Records
---
Amino acid sequence: MSQDMFLLDCPTYEDYLDTFVTRNDYRFIRNIRFCRMLVELGYRSSAEIYTPEQFVLHKAAVQESLWPTKKSTIFFSDNLKSFDPVLRELAIRERPNIQKMLSTIIFLKHRLKSGFEISGYIDYEHSLRRANLHAEDSIDWAGVFGERAVLKPKRCHLSYFDWHKGHVYYNNSDNYAVVHDVEYGLIFMHKGDHKKICVDISRELYIL
């Protein structure tokens, strides 16, 4: 958290990128947009460069730690009444995920009214935290556990596949980096213990 304190001095995402731009960058490139692009691509710092969404979330987390706006984290499954086995398993894992004692990736397939499928992988803890912060396009977990909302993948999740339209999206989360391996295919690497999780069920789950 301490390494993100400087985000309070950055009113916008562009201001955040500018903190990595050097005087020599201005002198030789003379194009602030191109300078920022180099920062986003990771050419100006060995530190992780946040995406616009990550910038908003990390800044909100710093502000929340200094000036709390709510008494405690909301546990959306606390009043779960459903006997749906999937919801009950997610409820069991909610608190350990929020407390960083467990990390869960959810794989989803959702059939649209057109009959075509979308699918994707969700970082459960990251999604719960976004919901607590009321982040844009976050999952309505209260509605999901109350069976008022459908749990389905979105383009902002770890991965999103629209098989009919041929659209594919990948996004790193605060907990996982998306890795494309020539041999193993799609892999999620946990940023904490660096374990690599292979999604190909015909192979070993963890890769050294």
Note: The CA atoms of residues 8 and 202 lie 46 Å apart.
---
Amino acid sequence: LTSDIDERDQPFVDYDAGRTVEGFYQVRNGIEPCIARAIAYAPHADLIWCETSKPDLAQAKKFAEGVRRHHPGKLLAYNCSPSFNWKKNLDDPTIAKFQRELGTMGYKFQFIT
């Protein structure tokens, strides 16, 4: 993060960690900063994209609920990446229902990129 001037970012800045050698503020990892950014951008976006490092229905649900609490009709997108190690992270029944579950959460756009 280049600046901590935006009050929406401040709760997630790790001031104790200090800045990086490049001068960036370090940000605490987690879904909460992502939800906060999504809520901030939602009024200006046609859809909000959830990008994760692995397939995770619980994380997708938390993101969707967080965004839709403030923007109930907002279109959501999720990347069902082919680079995910699907078998390592999910069992076969969960893989089979993954995209349907996303749909019930409001993810109307599911990309494979």
Note: The chain is about 40% helix and 10% strand.
---
Amino acid sequence: MRRLVTFFALPVALLAIWWVASAGSTDFYQPPLSKILGVFPETWFGPRMVDDVLPSLLRLAVGFALSLVIGVAAGVVIGTNRVLRDLTEPVLEFLRAIPPPALVPVFILIAGIDNLMKVLVIVSGCVWPVLLNTVAGVRAADEVLADTCRAYRITGTLRLRHFVLRSASPQIMAGARQALSVGLILMVISELKAASQGLGFTVRQFQTGFQIPEMWSGVLLLGIIGVVLSVLFRLVERRVLGWYHGATHDGVRS
């Protein structure tokens, strides 16, 4: 309960500051928070939830899942093979340096403006934190445990599951958390250009139509989605890395 209160304390405090600071505002472009909250339910708790919000979240989920699969698989292969790591490092550094928004026109040419393009944009940014953290986690595996696996002839899938992935899992989860934040940003960016639906598209439509309170309500919704995703990820992380946190806690106590 204390962790939950601590987690939500700052967002609630920021909303309170926003409410007080914007109260009585007559600026057309910076309406009071009370007005934004007033239009929030009718704007998002209706057809737009099904037509715009849910499709955006589905694309984010697909892009994030693909990034995990590609990043972990490639990271394990590269991390366990020194020659391959040396060969691919320049290429990976080159590709990682390309900002994903710059690839939007390329993906439009390749995949059109449908869901595939938006998923590709998300994957192009999310895959790197997962891949690089997986490589780092695999390389940092305990040498004593590696020697033990060799001594007991633990190889193949058994070694991959119980030694390689388990040793790298804290780093993999750290990369996945970064990827989730990047994915939410790229979800919006992919919908700002050449889109006909989605949360980012709708916010842009509100902006061009000078529906300013509705636009701000979309920004607020994105913040809420970010907080909810962070909470859900923490719950999954706690379950997946329960053994790791337990070992760390025992080590600190001893």
Note: The first helix runs from residue 2 to 22.
